[in-house]
Each structure stands twice: as structure tokens, then as C-alpha cells.
Amino acid sequence: xxxxxxxxxxxxxxxxxxxxxxxxxxxxxxxxxxxxxxxxxxxxxxxxxxxxxxxxxxxxxxxxxxxxxxxxxxxxxxxxxxxxxxxxxxxxxxxxxxxxxxxxxxxxxxxxxxxxxxxxxxxxxxxxxxxxxxxxxxxxxxxxxxxxxxxxxxxxxxxxxxxxxxxxxxxxxxxxxxxxxxxxxxxxxxxxx
Length: 193
Prior knowledge:
This protein is of the alpha/beta class. The chain contains six helices and eight strands. The protein has a six-stranded mixed β-sheet with strand order 4-3-2-5-6-7. Strands 1-8 form a two-stranded parallel ribbon. It starts with a strand and ends with a helix.
């Protein structure tokens, strides 16, 4: 498996490039909606560089009951303001399966907006939605700087499942030398497992 570990600078630069694509298209959003949680940071950056000061969020979760992952997403934090007749830009960090983006677009359209467009930093070929704007098409396991802990925990479990005899030192070395995590970051989260 390939891994793409992004720094804060990587995210900021990709988001600036994404803003250029949006501006060049002629689309001017009245407001930006970030999909919680991954879309919050790119949405905030785009809000700043596109001079779209109205920024809101929507949260979509995949639970049928407490702690039970479901197939159908549910809007658990709907918009709290009316947006009828507005041009809306929906932002997420990645369109992986595309389910969250698909449901966010349907939800926003149902609120009587004038136009809705979507943007992500990364698009995966497995996505059911191709956003209006994206920066890179990737197949790699993509790690954003705001999700280092959860990614390290998931990878530690993955490596243990693949080889139950692997000790934590070997896992740490795999995280650092094969995946590409900063050693200080890997050590910090491994020691808390």
C-alpha cells in the first residue's frame, strides 16, 4: 500500500491551488459549508482566501445505534441558518467512497439553494461523486495533519493483524521508515497506546 503523509504546509498550498481553480471557474460562493470533521480546515482556509466570510458546517455520521456503524449516513449536525437562494460551496478533505459528499450535496440542494458546488483536496477513484473542484487524484492511504493519532492507531492495528508476531519496535520502524511518519510523532502516539 502507498501512503501520503501531508504536512500543514502541504494542506495550505493545496488549498490555495484549489482556490485558484474555483476563482478561474467564475463560481463565487455566498457561503462555504465544511463537512465535519475533515472538511473544516480546508473550508476555513477557503473562506479566508475566497473572501467568503459566511462559513458553516454539516456533520454526517454512519451510525444506526450507539457505536454501531451503519450503511446509511445521517445528518447529525444540520445547518442552523437559512440558505435559500445562495451559491454554496461544500468542502471536504477527500472524496474516498464519496458517500459523505453525495449526501451533503443532496442535503444542501434540498434547502432551496441557487447553486451548489463541491470541492476536495483529494479524489479517489472509488468515489461515487466527482467533485466540481479537486486538486489530486490519489489511490494512497492519505493522512492529514489533523488526523495523525487516529491514522497511527489504525496502522498499528493493521500491522498487528497482518503479522501478530510483530513487536512495537518493528511497528514503529515500519511507521517511520516505510509509511513516512515523523519519528517524534510516531513515538508520541505509540507510547500512549
